[in-house]
Known about the structure:
The chain is of the alpha/beta class. The protein has a single domain (2-138), classed as 6-pyruvoyl tetrahydropterin synthase/QueD (Tetrahydropterin Synthase, Chain A, 2-Layer Sandwich), CATH 3.30.479. Helices cover 27% and strands 34% of the residues. The chain is built from three helices and six strands, in the order ββαβαβαββ. The protein has a six-stranded mixed β-sheet with strand order 4-3-1-2-5-6, sandwiched between helices. α2 links the parallel β3 (72-76) and β4. The model has no long low-confidence stretch (mean pLDDT 96). It binds zinc ion. Zinc ion (ZN) binds at residues 14, 23, 27, 29, 129.
Amino acid sequence: MYGLKTEAYFDSAHFLADYYGKCENLHGHRWRVVVYLEQDDLQEVGTMKDMVLDFGVFKKAVRALAEEFDHTFLVEEGTLKPATIEALTGEGFTLKMLPVRTTAENLARLFFERLREQGLPVAQVEMYETPNNCACYRA
Ligand SMILES: [Zn+2]
């Protein structure tokens, strides 16, 4: 089994609805996302011969996805009043609405699935919300 690993960062705000503790309040993280690829065999022809995947292609895909989340307010659908959403977007804030609770676990899964959709052989995604705390999702 061969593997590749790369990482990217993004800053975003979130809060957890129906949570009783500090995280129920709006706050931000510098999220660190670490992505692992795994493949039984190396590519046999072309510019990526004897590679899992060109690092340039891999890094570009992970960074583009991180960029999509960077400097946004991650909001679980249905957790803010429509008037609040309207007021925030009216002020020019960028909200990223997600169909799931904005936990590190769900973000790891979301990155995993989005990168798999692009055909990357993703084996695991780690999502750090602090330098010491990380959630992961693996195949
Ligand atoms: Zn948090």
